[in-house]
Design a protein that fits this description.
161 residues; mainly alpha
C-alpha cells in the first residue's frame, strides 16, 4: 500500500512541475516519508535526491537568464527575466492549476522586456531579448521535468534494489 501511495505522489509531482509548482520537492518529501514508514530508501539516496532537486532549481533560474543573454540581452535583462518569472508565478497563483505556469512564462518575458527597455529604447531588440527569456523558461521547465523523471526512476529503483 505504501508503494502505491509513493507512486501516486511521484506521478502527481511530475504533473506539478510544468505548472510551476514544487513537484520535485513533493517527490523528495514523499521519498523521505516513505523511508520513515518502511525501510527501503536510504538516507544517502534522500540526500542525493535533495541535491539533485536543488541543482534543478538553480538551473531553472540560470537558463532563463542565459537564453536572455543568448538573444542579445544585457545582464540587467537576464535578472529581469529571473525576477519577472518568480513574481509572475506568485501573482498568477490564485488562478487555479495553470496560473503559476502562465505567470512564470509571462513574467520572464515582461521582466526581460522591461529591463531591456530601460537600457535601450528599441522595442524590436527588447522583444527579441524577451522572446529569448521565454524560450529559456520553456527549456528550464523541460529540464525540470527530465530531472523529475530521473528522481522518480531513482526512487522506484531504490525500492526494488
Amino acid at each position: 500500500m505504501e508503494e502505491l501511495l509513493l507512486a501516486i505522489a511521484l506521478v502527481v509531482g511530475l504533473l506539478l512541475i510544468p505548472l510551476g509548482l514544487p513537484g520535485l520537492w513533493l517527490m523528495v518529501g514523499s521519498a523521505l516519508l516513505y523511508s520513515y514508514a518502511k525501510p527501503g530508501i536510504s538516507i544517502w539516496t534522500i540526500g542525493a535526491l535533495t541535491v539533485l532537486a536543488l541543482i534543478a532549481e538553480l538551473i531553472e533560474f540560470v537558463l532563463s537568464a542565459r537564453y536572455t543573454r543568448k538573444y542579445g540581452g544585457s545582464r540587467r535583462a537576464g535578472w529581469g527575466a529571473i525576477i519577472g518569472g518568480v513574481v509572475g508565478a506568485f501573482v498568477w497563483t490564485p488562478l487555479p492549476v495553470i496560473g503559476p505556469m502562465i505567470g512564470a512564462f509571462a513574467g520572464a518575458f515582461v521582466g526581460a522586456w522591461v529591463a531591456e527597455m530601460t537600457r535601450s529604447a528599441e522595442v524590436r531588440g527588447a522583444t527579441r531579448v524577451a522572446t529569448g527569456a521565454l524560450i529559456g523558461r520553456i527549456v528550464a521547465v523541460a529540464m525540470k521535468v527530465g530531472i523529475g523523471l530521473v528522481l522518480a526512476v531513482w526512487i522506484l529503483l531504490a525500492l526494488w534494489i
